């Protein structure tokens, strides 16, 4: 009885989480719906407790290696810096972190590379929390703003950096234009994003369509771009020197999805910290995380990397 009761309780809670999941989709309605979602996730603290200061996937290598979940996330930032060639830039380089979350990447870019960083997010609560977590000696500031209408003049930054912000953008072409607009001539754009397979080449089949619908509706995503499609949009801005460089990081990031669920098992103190309500809210995310693993594992989704240089030189 002592063994069956906890298992039965777990099943009950899991069923409750699935019911909540099915009844409370966070469909994209406007930029306000994205801001509200992130405000709530930041305020309750559950996402930060399990995912740490980096609200993005981790990097596990090729082939993937066993890693601590939080370590893999910070490793991702350093791998992205190297892939983008940013480790060759001098201290004082100005960086815009678009979709900065609670500032994890911004702090690494400032602390480990000496960059001067501005983080922008649509969530006021994320800005508040990012400011709380950031030591005063770091050259980092955070502002509230919409990535489709950023409050910066043209050619403001040496580097524009963005991780997993694109899926929240309803107008991918405008997002591409804004990223390139605020970049100085000769500056570098480095983007990491969740993407879907290019359905112009291979349309979604009968089971992929409902899975994609859930991936969009549950986390306030209006649409995913494909790697090929977003690279084309960047080039169509007329601001890119040469071609956009892309890479597929699906394999080195894939363990993140199951690792994020495993955190709830290996860190049971979360149950004490957040109580029954927190547990149910956490279980509510499990179906989406499993669908994400399915989508990225079968090729429906891909993890895309993008690097572009703005044409011209100062």
Descriptive notes:
With 314 residues, the chain is of the alpha/beta class. It has one domain (4-309): Rossmann fold (3-Layer(aba) Sandwich). The protein contains 12 helices and 7 strands. The chain has a 7-stranded mixed β-sheet, with helices on both faces. Helix 7 links the parallel strand 4 and strand 5 (183-196). Helix 2 packs parallel to helix 6 (124-133) and helix 8 (208-218) packs antiparallel against helix 12. The longest helix is centred in the C-terminal third of the chain and has 30 residues, at 269-298. The chain is globular.
Topology:
Layout: H1 4-23, H2 31-44, H3 46-51, H4 69-84, E1 94-98, H5 104-113, E2 116-121, H6 124-133, E3 140-144, E4 157-163, H7 172-181, E5 183-196, H8 208-218, H9 227-236, E6 245-248, H10 250-253, H11 256-266, H12 269-298, E7 301-309
Parallel strand pairs: 1-2, 1-4, 2-3, 4-5
Antiparallel strand pairs: 5-7, 6-7
Helix pairs in contact: 1-12, 2-6, 4-5, 7-9, 8-12, 11-12
Largest sheet: 7 strands, mixed
Provide the domain count: 1
Total DSSP E strands: 7
Helix-strand makeup class: alpha/beta
SSE ordering: HHHHEHEHEEHEHHEHHHE
The CATH superfamily title = Vaccinia Virus protein VP39
Distance between the termini: 74 Å
Q: Total helix count?
A: 12
Beta-strand residue fraction: 15-25%
What spatial form do the alpha-carbon principal axes imply? Answer: globular
């Amino acid at each position: 009885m002592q063994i069956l009761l906890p298992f039965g309780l777990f099943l009950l809670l899991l069923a409750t989480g699935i019911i909540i999941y099915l009844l409370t989709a966070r469909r994209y309605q406007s930029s306000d719906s994205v801001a509200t979602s992130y405000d709530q996730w930041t305020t309750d603290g559950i996402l930060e407790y399990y995912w740490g200061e980096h609200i993005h996937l981790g990097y596990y290598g090729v082939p993937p290696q066993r890693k601590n979940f939080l370590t893999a996330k910070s490793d991702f930032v350093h791998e992205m810096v190297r892939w983008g060639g940013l480790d060759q830039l001098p201290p004082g380089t100005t960086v815009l972190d678009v979709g900065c979350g609670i500032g994890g990447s911004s702090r690494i870019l400032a602390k480990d590379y000496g960059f001067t960083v501005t983080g922008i997010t649509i969530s006021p609560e994320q800005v508040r929390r990012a400011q709380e977590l950031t030591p005063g000696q770091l050259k980092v500031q955070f502002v509230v703003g919409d990535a489709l209408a950023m409050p910066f003049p043209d050619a403001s930054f040496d580097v524009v950096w963005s991780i997993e912000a694109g899926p929240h953008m309803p107008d991918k072409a405008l997002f591409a234009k804004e990223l390139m607009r605020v970049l100085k001539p000769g500056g570098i754009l480095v983007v990491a994003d969740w993407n879907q397979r290019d359905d112009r080449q291979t349309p979604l089949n009968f089971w992929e369509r409902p899975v994609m619908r859930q991936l969009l509706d549950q986390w306030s995503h209006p649409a995913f771009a494909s790697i090929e499609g977003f690279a084309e949009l960047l080039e169509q801005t007329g601001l890119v020197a040469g071609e956009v460089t892309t890479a597929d990081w699906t394999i080195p990031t894939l363990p993140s999805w199951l690792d994020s669920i495993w955190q709830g098992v290996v860190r049971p103190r979360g149950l004490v910290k957040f109580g029954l309500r927190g547990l149910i809210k956490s279980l509510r995310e499990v179906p989406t995380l499993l669908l994400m693993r399915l989508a990225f594992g079968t090729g429906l989704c891909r993890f895309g990397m993008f690097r572009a240089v703005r044409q011209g030189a100062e």
